[in-house]
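Appendix C reproduces, verbatim, an entry submitted by the partner laboratory led by Prof. M.T., so that reviewers can inspect both the input and the predicted structure.
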Amino acid sequence: MYSMKRMKKTSSIILVMLMLSMLLLSVSIPVRASSANIWTDKEDYSPEETVTIYGSGFNPNAIVSINVTRPDNNSDEWIVTSDSSGSFTTTYLLDGILGVYTVVATDGTNTATTTFTDADIDYVSVSPSTQTITAGDSTTYTVTVAKKGGSELSVTLSVVGSLPSGSTSSFSLNPVTFSSSESGSKTSTLTIITSASGSTGTFTFKVRGTKTGTGDKADSTDVTLIVQAPLPPAEVSTTITSSPVTGSGFVKVDGVAYDTPAYFSWTPGSTHTLEALSPVAGPTGTQYVWMSWSDGGAQTHNIVTPSTATTYTANYKTQYYLTVVSPYGTPGGMGWYDAGTTAYATVTPLIVPGPAGTQYVFTHWSDDASGTTSPSDPITMDGPKTATANWKTQYQITFTADPSEALGGTFKVTYTQCGTTYTEVEKTTTWTEWVDAGTTVTVSDPQEYVPSEAGVGGIRYKFDRYDPLASVTMNEAKTITLVYKTQYYLTVKTDPSDIVTVPGEGWYDKCTNVGLTAPSAPKYYRFDYWNVDGTSQGTGVRAITVHMDGPHTATAHYTKLVTRTQGFWATHKTFTWSKWTTETIGTKIIDTDEKLFGAFWSNVATTSTGAKRSLLDQAKMQLLQQLVAAMLNIKAFGDDDLGTGAGLIAAGKAAFSGTDRTAILSIANQLAAFNNSGDNQPLPPGVTPGPADPQGAQKIADRGFWNTLP
């Protein structure tokens, strides 16, 4: 550092200095600095105060000429030598001349200029020198302005230096004025207001007083403002909880899950996010569904922390789960229900098909449900509930008949269905029904003959047995078959139909072999052959076997021998009259069937009035019967068929008109022998006398016609 007293510089001195500078320059090569700079330790000084002048950016180890021009335009000059870095320090003593001083420093290559003042302002001071506040607060400094001279003075105050961002400054008195008669000092209050969001730290500034209209300045010493970060405000207690149940899973606060109740200390005015989780699982079959926040907010919403302790409650409703269980069908009604409400369990359908011949029938609800149909009885949801559908297994029982032609017969059956037992209910094959598993089905009283004992078309079916049994336990689908034997009817006839009875007619099991034997022929008949269903079994074969592979008719054919006695003609009314023509016997003309049958049916011994005939008339009546029979035999069968008879008929007619009783009886016996001679001969083809009708023949007989004989 170079220090020197102020002095008057002469030109000779300046010349010497210049020469010395030239000498130094010859030693080193000057360099132009990029930015030479000079400054003073203050901007304004008091009279006779020492000014410190600083320089930098000059050539290293160079002679630097310093020139100070005073307010009275006189100059003071001196030289200094810069150090190795191109810097220097020197001083200048003021002598009380007021005004602006201009300082010029040059090393011949680099030049720098600055100014300072020795103003009317004696000084500007600030008290205190240091203040500490919190961001957002304000503080004050007392600024004192002192007057130097006796003239009028107006000083404008300003803050020079760094203040916190966002802050403001103001002076209570600005400018500070003095009249010419005033002396001493005056004060102004500097107020600095900081921003709560502004910068914090240590800030140094000066308070400058500038003489109005001159630019003369007087700076205060350095003033310090320390701005601290605001202390966090006092926190308040905030409680986040849930109702009616607390615990985990109910809420999130600022995105983080907390158990309730959760306690927080938050700064009033701070913002936080509340979220109610829903649904929240509780004990088995229980859940909680969010309904509202106590502050009326949405399920997720923001709150601003109040200044007092506050509780926020997430309100929930309780729900219980209805479980519906069913091994069959489709259960319904399961789900969540609000506590205290009513639920119903359902299942469809109520009958569910299973494997072939198996089904499942809904019977009732159990556990927390009741009822015997769907939907169930009401279920009050005051807790988790379970409704279980109960089912009964049923199997199909089928009743049929074998062979199929035997279907339609009746039987009685005892079975249990849905817990009800039905006893000996009459049914008809085929019949099918569902019965409870594990129960017994019993069949009884089958119809013995199907379709009836008489059968249809010679066929019937006779009950034989049950297959497998008459009583079965229902542990699966089952069939009970009513097994019938097929029976065929064997019809046994004779031809003619009324001559004998042949045993063996009746019902026979299918494939049975039935032996038939034709009995001996009665009088006037002989056995000829059997035929079965129109097929001959051989002439003269009396014993046959019929194989019952169906209904059959066996007919024993007999040949009727000629019965040409008067008894044959007296009973076959229609056949007899069909062969007669008008004849005269004695004095009697026989031209009606009444007269003809009167000849057979008039009493030999008495007349129609009951009068006894004479022995002669009795003989004539015997002759009359044989004579009429002989005449009919010849008319019906011819004389050649019977042997000679024409002469006997003529002799008979002659004897009938005579009185020789012996001759009459003799010819009567001969005619009787003639009539009987044809009994061993069959009726000729086409002759069908038909059945005898003795009552009808007697009824038409005109017996009175023969009361009087010739």
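The chain has nine helices and 50 strands. Additional entries are available on request from the coordinating office.
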